[in-house]
């Protein structure tokens, strides 16, 4: 079994590469990305309007610097390898054009210092240097030049000065958001507390309610309790969460004023007492939680009921009752454990609570969570953010599947993974 789980963990790597490689390719061929948008903005700044010749007022060097900034200066596989961190990234590239009869140009090399070395008025190390047409870089500070490289492009009569550096996914860098100019990892982490709150509450409340309800429905099969709860469950299942959210906001929040209409907390949250803060969060969470949970109730409840009914009809349960065991003991001591095995397979999804969230529900209740961040990254064509969210989703889903297998093996001694 140990070898099986080792193989499963190792399979995360090719699965992650395959998923990110496909999506990375889609971002390269999809029109209207951050590079095209930046070119349009540049043209509007110069001429006050857009058009087919977006970026036409920029020099070729400015266009190339912009393409390098957004990662569109390399072929597809090369750019992916740079994003992955197995090839060096050309940091802060400068495309220097040489005019006719001029063989030397003065350049300013600007490099961001580590945060610990930042000063109140400066966070960069600036070096004045000279570059020649044949790519010779000289400066008074010889040590500063060790981190800079030069690539000559004679056919374009220019040189490219850059800093080669491994700075990709393997180094823990998800890149900068093209829409917000913020680190992608920091943006995702900032949304996780909201996702954890709603994800964990939805996860545990669903199991706490659905498992006992499924047991009750199996024991009381075809009784009034079973029939009434089935009707209520499937009515709830048939109502989309976003539609229920709209109704709750309109009637219970806006008209009746029983609940807040939006947000995760109130505006005066910081000034509230400890118990006031707890109540404020709970008060805001009741309606969104109802929308999150309404869809999962039917699946878990009916899964628990059907599995328990199958086991109650099995020979080993009838044998236990025939030998004098009480019906209660036969249900709780024999049938229930085997009935929980299929439920255990769904427990692995707890790993995804870090990125839990529903776009429509979060938009209805104005909850700044992971679901809203995901759709914003797609609509804004924020490709670094899209890739970061996808990478995190794939890893968590794969870990959840492995956790499900482990829990099944732990619950059912008959299961052996080879």
Give an overview in words.
With 418 residues, the chain is mostly helical. It has three domains: 31-87 and 166-173, no CATH class; 93-164, no CATH class; 184-411, MetI-like (MetI-like fold, Orthogonal Bundle), CATH 1.10.3720. Helices cover 57% and strands 10% of the residues. The strands form two sheets. It has a three-stranded antiparallel beta sheet with strand order 1-6-5. The protein has a three-stranded antiparallel beta sheet with strand order 2-3-4, with no helix packed on it. β3 and β4 (137-138) form a beta hairpin.
Relative strand content: 5-15%
Order of helices and strands: HHHHEEEEEEHHHHHHHHH
Question: How widely separated are the two ends?
Answer: 5 Å
Find the structural class using helix and strand composition: mainly alpha
